[in-house]
Structure formats: structure tokens, C-alpha cells
């Protein structure tokens, strides 16, 4: 199995980057691995930590309509250039944590996606240079309030709710070009989304290059590469599982979120 890079919080409240071993013990690193973190002599026993999202990005840059069949199901052509939007880092939630269904929406969709983790500052990179800036790969769910996306015209609210970016559970360094990505709902054996990552319109290195001509990407930043065909709604109580061959799976449960009492 590929080396699995994680970020954890111990039962005592310390946050560490580390390597997840087959025994479920964590070998703690002294810094994020993309900043040359080295193994320490600290090991965490199973049960003494919880997994966090595997990085803590300054920003999440996402790409819309990057699979031909998904653009078609949205009734739109494939964009001539990548269509960029952002999700706030506060939208991130870890594997096995809850997605909070906001009361402002009546239609919340899952969007299983391959996520890229940037390893080094990246500005005005060519695609060839950009390939070297992609440190690793993880799984994301670009949860979207579809009704608010259509209503607002721009996507910040629809994409930006707390918990609308499940990410993880870990990062791997390598991914085969044609890795299968699938999304499952609850116990249904058939996926609701199934595609190969090389069916993307714009490749990971092209996306990183393109984004780097707009904004500087920093170590630990995350790029969401778009979702395949088959997006659909979740209901409160649903479990959503996104699987990518060679990485693993990311599962989250949908719960109701109530608005805070007004002061
Ligand atoms: Mg998306």
C-alpha cells in the first residue's frame, strides 16, 4: 500500500502531521511533509488521536465542469478555459465527520472529486513545472447548495458553507493516470458517479499552471479538479462515500444544521 500522509489531533489536543501505519499507529513528523518534515521518535497509538483533514490550506481553488459528461448534464458546454471558483478553508471537514445541511437550502448535492495538494510555491508555472509542484493526491467532496448556486449566479454562498468540503482521509504521493473515481450513497452497491480521472478536460498539471498565472499557490493549498457526471441530492441522514482507486475512500454523514439564535 502507498504511504499515507495524515494530519491528526491527539486526545491531549496537539496537532501533528504523520505517517499512518498499517497497525493504525501514527509516526509523527516534525513539520508538514511537503516542508521536509522528518520522522520524530513520537508514535501515537490507535485510539489516541483522531484524523483531521490531511492539510490546512491557505485556499481551496476549485474547477467547474471539468468532465464532458458532467458539463452536459448541467446543460452547458465544456468551458474553453478552466472555470475557477474558491471555497473557504473553513468549509473543510475531515473523513467521518458530518456535513451540515444548511436551512437556507432545499437542494444540497454531493460532488466527488480528486484533490491535488500543492507542495511548493507556484507562480506563473508551465504545465511541466506545475507537475513538480503537485505534492500529492487526496479525495474531496465539493458539496454544493445547488438551488443557491442557481439563484445567486455566483457561487460563494452555494459552495462555502461550513463542512461543504470534506477532504481526506490521507494524502498519497502517486496516482495512476486512469484511477477510477466513484461516489456511493448509503448502502447502494451501484455508484452514483463513476469515471476515470484521465477523462478530465483539463489535466491536473494544466490546472495548476493555469491557476498559478492568476494567484500564487502555496504549500498545502488544495485544488479540486471537478466532478464527473452523476451529481445528485443528499438528504439528512445520508452517508456519502467518495472512492478513488489508489487512495481510499472518504465518507461523511449529512446532518441538519440549525441557524444560531439571533442575538
Ligand atoms: Mg465541483
TrEMBL record:
GO molecular function: acetylpyruvate hydrolase activity; isomerase activity; metal ion binding
Pfam families: FAA_hydrolase (PF01557), Rv2993c-like_N (PF10370)
Residue intervals of the Rv2993c-like N-terminal domain: 4-54
Biological process, per Gene Ontology: carboxylic acid metabolic process
Ranges for domain Fumarylacetoacetase-like C-terminal: 59-255
Keyword terms: Hydrolase, Metal-binding
InterPro entries in the cross-refs: Fumarylacetoacetase-like_C, Fumarylacetoacetase_C_sf, Rv2993c-like_N
Protein name listed in UniProt: Fumarylacetoacetate hydrolase family protein
Amino acid at each position: 500500500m502507498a504511504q499515507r500522509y495524515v494530519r491528526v489531533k491527539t486526545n491531549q489536543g496537539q496537532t501533528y502531521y504523520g505517517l499512518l501505519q498499517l497497525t493504525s499507529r501514527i509516526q509523527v513528523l516534525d513539520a508538514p511533509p511537503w516542508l521536509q518534515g522528518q520522522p520524530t521518535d513520537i508514535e501515537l497509538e490507535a485510539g489516541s488521536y483522531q484524523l483531521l483533514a490531511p492539510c490546512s490550506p491557505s485556499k481551496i481553488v476549485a474547477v467547474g465542469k471539468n468532465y464532458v459528461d458532467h458539463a452536459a448534464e448541467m446543460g452547458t458546454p465544456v468551458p474553453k478555459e478552466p472555470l475557477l471558483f474558491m471555497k473557504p478553508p473553513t468549509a473543510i471537514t475531515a473523513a467521518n465527520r458530518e456535513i451540515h445541511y444548511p436551512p437556507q437550502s432545499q437542494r444540497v448535492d454531493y460532488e466527488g472529486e480528486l484533490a491535488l495538494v500543492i507542495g511548493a510555491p507556484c507562480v506563473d508555472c508551465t504545465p511541466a513545472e506545475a507537475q513538480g509542484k503537485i505534492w500529492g493526491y487526496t479525495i474531496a467532496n465539493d458539496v454544493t447548495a445547488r438551488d443557491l448556486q442557481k439563484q445567486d449566479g455566483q457561487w460563494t454562498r452555494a459552495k462555502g458553507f461550513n463542512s461543504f468540503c470534506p477532504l481526506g482521509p490521507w494524502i498519497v504521493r502517486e496516482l495512476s493516470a486512469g484511477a477510477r473515481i466513484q461516489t456511493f450513497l448509503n448502502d447502494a452497491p451501484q455508484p452514483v458517479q463513476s469515471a476515470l480521472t484521465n477523462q478530465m478536460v483539463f489535466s491536473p498539471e494544466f490546472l495548476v499552471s493555469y491557476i498559478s498565472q492568476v494567484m500564487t499557490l502555496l504549500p498545502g493549498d488544495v485544488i479540486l479538479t471537478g466532478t464527473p457526471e452523476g451529481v445528485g441530492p443528499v438528504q439528512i441522514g445520508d452517508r456519502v462515500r467518495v472512492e478513488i482507486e489508489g487512495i481510499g475512500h472518504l465518507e461523511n454523514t449529512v446532518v441538519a444544521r440549525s441557524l444560531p439564535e439571533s442575538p
